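subagent[fold] <- orchestrator: predict structure for attached chain, return tokens only, no commentary.
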Amino acid sequence: MQPRTKALCSAERETLGVIPLKEKKLLEVKLGELPSWILMRDFTPSGIAGAFQRGYYRYYNKYVNVKKGSIAGLSMVLAAYVFFNYCRSYKELSESLLGCFASGGVSPDRAGLVHLLI
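subagent[fold] -> orchestrator:
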């Protein structure tokens, strides 16, 4: 019997448990392999754009483009959008609210908010 000289296809590699480091996902990489795995990534603008594109298509196919769809995928995007805008305007919101109560213009008691909560 002659030794096998043909390269293994990806299905054969997975069944044998031999996956090249470049093809491994981040959660499959061992801690000792992490520095070399990071150096194998493509950090050019086209590589980064490709990574975002793969992430978008993965999200789209998992949550949006399904046979039995639900509102989960779109609600996650909406929640992220609301959270991002809240974080972006947090400083302005906190200053305006603090100034409103500190100046004596409107207090929670005068606005009737305390009576609504009771």
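orchestrator: received. Logging for downstream: The chain has a mean pLDDT of 75. Residues 27 and 70 are 28 Å apart (CA to CA).
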